[in-house]
Amino acid sequence: MVVDKNENVLFYFLNLYLEDVHMNLVETSQAVKSGDVSLGIELGSTRIKAVLVTHDFQTIASGSYVWENQFVDGVWTYPLEQVWTGIQASYTQMVAEVQSKYHSPLTKIGSIGVSAMMHGYLAFDQAGKQLVPFRTWRNNITGQAADELTALFSFNIPQRWSIAHLYQAILNDEPHVKDIDFITTLAGYVHWQLSGKRVLGVGDASGVFPIDEKTGTYSEAMLEAFNTQDAVKRYSWNTKDILPAVLPAGQQAGTLTNDGAKLLDASGNLQAGSVMAPPEGDAGTGMVGTNSVRKRTGNISVGTSAFSMVVLDQPLKAVHRDIDMVMTPTGAPVAMVHINNCSSDINAWANLFSEFAAKLGVDLKPDRLYETLFLQATHSDPDVGGLVNYSYLSGENITKMSAGRPLFVRTPKSNFTLANFMATQLYAAFAPLKIGMDILTNEENIKTDVMIAQGGLFKTPVIGQQILANALNTPITVMSTAGEGGPWGMAVLAIYALPGENEDSLEDFLDRKVFANPESMTLSPEPDGVKGYQQFIENYQAGLPVEGAAIDDIPERK
Predict the structure, then answer these.
(1) Alpha-carbon gap, residue 266 to 502, rounded angstroms
(2) 33 in the Ramachandran plot: left (φ > 0), alpha (ψ -120 to 50) or beta?
(3) Strand 306-311 vs strand 333-339: parallel, antiparallel, or unpaired?
(4) Is there a domain that residue 10 lies in?
């Protein structure tokens, strides 16, 4: 057989590739054996995910568990039993992938970090017993408390913040309040069970109680103002004592205990002793996962809910009820626009189309289904044919809606096509975010050097990214990790907590080590798209009384 020169070159490069793959497998297997790996766990709104990375920030295995919040007795909640079912399922799936790929059992992990959806209310007594079901960020049941605390502090307190939930329980004379020994967030709860430490990262803590940027912990003046309220003085506990301690990124927040290792790994193979990073909220991991912790940077995370985060280089001029003041994982001030509803209505319509396809004998995989529907949106009219959609599965603070009534509206002359219908779903997903961001740009004149977006909605390239750029009239960058930023970002924070890794600031650590060669794509606003979205948002705002009437007049199904 005669082998020509081209074939020799091909074999040469193929051998190089195979040698490189073999070396990577050998090196990664050794890292697994020695415990030179870090684990990020994130409990999101619809999925719990565990991501294992090597100390060069490469993901080597992952596992996930799908869950959904429940509306029970007027409260959006998740049972804590399912928290551990989901974490253990995710961890077990991840370990199986490690064994399959690298033929090494996972017995040691260098560092671990836990993140979760921010805010909400988890209350426990002195024995560690949960006092009331978990009240998530999605609830709009603390309006009186949020209003009174905002006036008291001259600082915006959103309904979903932990202190708003606590104060509303006090105002409601709820019997459990007298027994409170500890309140925390979901990430803080999981971290507590794994490490025994009642702590929070400063980013997550900033959704519990306002943080003083100078001290890096809860505002003493606001704590004093809260404690001296007549309704609060009735109780024997001191507010400061029942809140988690606050830690910045890079500090160690305890170690994995023997009991914690058993909680995480039901097989019992995992050893205790892993360094624990300060637990963070999904906003903090979103900032890390998009390298958006430096001043004048910003990021947008989209999922069941959505939020934008702009790291400020100047204080806001006024208190805005639609702008939350939170913190980066290192304690820098961030202006946050949070919306309760984003992708859930899109998912509901996609499920309907999937059901219809199944009736025709067509088995559409989710990725193919979403890609097909999203690509159809590229053929829409710039103003989406005059269609309007309100994707409110729950209440929406930005538009002052107290409950959820998903609503699709068209006029007889609307151009009702599949393309316009799907584009309307995407337009609507970003609408409350657009309304909130306009406050920052138009009233506060806040500028950013870059806005980076992440979330599963961007797994289908270009479409959602372009609509978001048009909606906000600003360039939007999406990184290659857009669909999986959160748990990976928490794993990065876990590495940053290791001895010797936090000698640089978090900003420099991310720039120099993590994002030295980022893969990303930036799309700029399209003039026709910007004009079309503006027409849509004007119709959207004009129709808000219709949404309000639906909430008032259409009762929730029993």
Answers:
(1) 32
(2) alpha
(3) antiparallel
(4) no
CATH of the domain at 538: 3.30.420.40
Distance CA 348, CA 394 (A): 14
Looking at residue 453, the DSSP 8-state letter turns out to be: E
CA distance from start to end of the chain: 77
**325 within 8 A of 156, measured Cβ to Cβ:** yes
Task: Report, as ranges of residue numbers, the positions in the chain whose pLDDT lies below 50.
Answer: 1-3, 5, 16-23
Q: Which residues pair with 522 in a beta bridge?
A: 477
- The CATH number of the domain where 257 resides is what? 3.30.420
The tokens for 274 are: 């892993």
On whether the CB atoms of residues 477 and 461 are closer than 8 A, the answer is: no
Contact 95, 270 (CB under 8 A): no
Same domain? 441 vs 351: yes
- Residue 122 has what pLDDT? 98
Same domain for 169 and 74: no
The one-letter amino acid at 357: A
Q: Which helix (H) or strand (E) holds 333?
A: strand 333-339
Domain that holds residue 151: 119-184+209-242
- Phi (first) and psi of residue 254, to 5 degrees: 95, -170
How many structural domains does the chain have?
A: 3
| Per-residue pLDDT reduced to its tens digit, 519-529 | 789 999 999 99
Residue 299 lies in a domain: no
